[in-house]
Amino acid sequence: MKILVVEDEHKIANSLKKGLEQESYAVDVAFDGQEGYDFAISEEYDLIILDLLLPKMDGVEICLKLRKQQVHTPVLMLTAKGQISDKVNGLDAGADDYLTKPFAFKELLARLRALIRRPKNNTGTTLKIEDLTLNTSNYEVRRGSKLVKLSSKEYALLEYLMRHPEQVLTKKQIIDHIWNYDADVLPNTVEVFIGYLRNKMEKPFPDKSTLIQTVRGFGYKIGRVE
Ligand code: CA
């Protein structure tokens, strides 16, 4: 899952990036409104954390422009204490939720999980494909009852696949959602990480079905073998 943080206070922006990366999200940061808008319109994000008061273009204007351009990425708007009328403005502009500064990081995590958690086939915090389960609140992945230990990037990749079951995802889509804008991603990086996942969730279970399918020339999908 990839998140864009648009926040002109460097200290807040950098601590958000650090905290979110520890939670396995890929994070891009923009420090002013124009840069934020440019990122939001040109990259695919799963969520945008948008400060209200920003140099060059404010949060409400960015939101309005994005919605006008048919970009419907969920937006969590950050407001300073007491900006109630701005909240109303932001709501009209198409933000999905609000958080008043200062906030607890845990609260932010809960809000963004709620915004990202949208697929209809999965309820609560557990994603499930056959006997593979992924719990987004404690990061536990299990095949049947057996725990599968994943690295942060492996987990992020698996979560992305599981949020799009039975859907072919191209390498480009996967890279766009799992790695930062400025990350060094080699052409075979996705293959390498798919290999790691297979080694951990398929190889140790030879009598169980294969979960990740390679669709030659297109990409990968997770789900049943036809
Ligand atoms: Ca600000």
Characterization of the model:
The protein is built from eight helices and twelve strands. The protein has 226 residues and is of the alpha/beta class. It has two domains: 2-115, 3-Layer(aba) Sandwich (Rossmann fold); 126-222, Orthogonal Bundle (Arc Repressor Mutant, subunit A), CATH 1.10.10.10. The strands form three sheets. It has a five-stranded parallel sheet, sandwiched between helices. Strand 3, helix 3 and strand 4 form a beta-alpha-beta unit. The radius of gyration is 19 Å and the shape is elongated. The structure holds calcium ion. Residues 8-9, 51, 53-54 line the site of calcium ion. The site of calcium ion (CA) has 5 residues, from loops.
Kindly state the number of beta strands. 12
Please describe the biggest sheet, giving its number of strands, its sense, and whether it closes into a barrel. 5 strands, parallel
Shape, please? elongated
Number of H- or I-type helical stretches: 8
Element order: H for helix, E for strand? EHEHEHEHEHEEEEHEHHEE
Over all CA atoms, what is the radius of gyration? 19 Å
> The CATH topology of the largest domain, please?
Rossmann fold
> What is the highest CATH level, the class of the largest domain?
Alpha Beta
Q: Any ligands, ions or cofactors bound here, and which?
A: calcium ion
* Total domain units: 2
Distance separating the two termini: 27 Å
The CATH superfamily of the largest domain appears as: Response regulator
Q: Strand pairing plus helix content: what structural class?
A: alpha/beta
Please tell me the CATH architecture of the largest domain by its name: 3-Layer(aba) Sandwich
Modified residues (4-aspartylphosphate): 51
Domain Response regulatory: 2-116
GO molecular function: phosphorelay response regulator activity; transcription cis-regulatory region binding
Keywords: DNA-binding, Phosphoprotein, Transcription, Transcription regulation, Two-component regulatory system
